[in-house]
Design a protein that fits this description.
By secondary structure, the chain is of the alpha/beta class. It has 10 helices and 8 strands. It has an 8-stranded parallel barrel, surrounded by 6 helices. The two termini are 26 Å apart. The mean pLDDT is 96.
C-alpha cells in the first residue's frame, strides 16, 4: 500500500527542534506517535543535510510505519533519504520552495506531496496543475504564531472554512492552533489539524497527542 493510499492527515505534527529541547526531536515524535499522531513533518531550517539524514533514520525507526513521515521544504533531502532506503513518504512545500510539479516528477506517483496555500491565487495555480500533482494543502495560519514569525495574515476558523470550501484538495489547518480548536476546525471542513508548539513544548507530548486524537474522533 502506498503512502498516498494510507495518508491520514487528521492528527499532524510539525517538529521544532528548539521547542523539543534537550529531549530531542526523536523522543517527542516517538511519544506523539504513541499518542495517536498519524502524520509527522520534519521541519528544520538550519541543521546540515548529514545530520538531518541521521535524524530521519531515527524518526523512521521510532515511527515504525505507524505514521506518514514527510520532510518540510527540502526536496533534495527527501530524495537523498529515499535513495538511501529510508521510508520517507514525501515532502511538504511552501510557495517559495521547489515546485510541486518537480517534486512529483522526482519522487514519483506514490509519494506524498503537500503544499502550503492560503490565498485565492494559490488555488488558481493548483487548478492549472495536472491532477495528482499535490495530495493535500496546509492552510493557515489560523492564529498568529511565534513558530513562524513571517506568516501571512491569520485566517481564523471562519477564513479557513471559506478557503477549504473553495479548495479541491484536503486541507490541514495549521498555525496557532490549540486543542479547543479541533472540533470547530473539523466542522469547518479540515481534513486534519497540525500542531507544533502544543506538542513539541508539552511536558507530556504523548498525552497531548492522545487528547488531539480523541478530540478529532469525538468531533466526527
Amino acid at each position: 500500500m502506498s503512502a498516498r493510499t494510507a495518508l491520514d492527515l487528521s492528527t499532524y505534527l510539525v517538529t521544532d527542534a528548539t521547542l523539543c529541547g534537550e529531549r530531542g526531536v526523536t523522543a517527542v515524535v516517538a511519544a506523539a506517535v504513541d499518542g495517536g499522531v498519524r502524520t509527522v513533518q520534519l521541519r528544520d531550517k538550519v541543521d546540515s543535510t548529514s545530520n538531518l539524514l541521521r535524524l530521519l533514520e531515527e524518526l523512521a525507526t521510532a515511527i515504525d510505519g505507524r505514521a506518514v513521515l514527510l520532510v518540510n521544504d527540502r526536496l533534495d533531502l527527501a530524495i537523498a533519504a529515499r535513495a538511501s532506503g529510508l521510508p520517507v513518504d514525501g515532502v511538504h512545500l511552501g510557495q517559495g520552495d521547489a515546485a510541486a510539479a518537480i517534486a512529483r516528477d522526482r519522487l514519483g506517483p506514490d509519494a506524498v506531496v503537500g503544499l502550503t496555500a492560503n490565498a485565492p491565487a494559490h488555488l488558481e495555480a493548483l487548478r492549472r496543475m495536472p491532477r495528482g500533482t499535490v495530495d493535500y494543502l496546509g492552510v493557515g495560519v489560523i492564529r498568529p504564531t511565534t513558530t513562524k514569525p513571517d506568516h501571512p495574515p491569520a485566517l481564523g476558523i471562519d477564513g479557513f472554512a471559506r478557503f477549504a470550501a473553495e479548495a479541491e484538495l484536503p486541507c490541514v489547518a495549521i498555525g496557532g492552533i490549540v486543542l479547543a480548536d479541533v472540533a470547530p476546525l473539523r466542522e469547518a471542513g479540515a481534513a486534519g489539524v497540525a500542531l507544533v508548539s502544543a506538542i513539541c513544548a508539552a511536558d507530556d507530548p504523548r498525552a497531548v497527542a492522545r487528547d488531539l486524537a480523541n478530540r478529532w474522533e469525538a468531533a466526527r
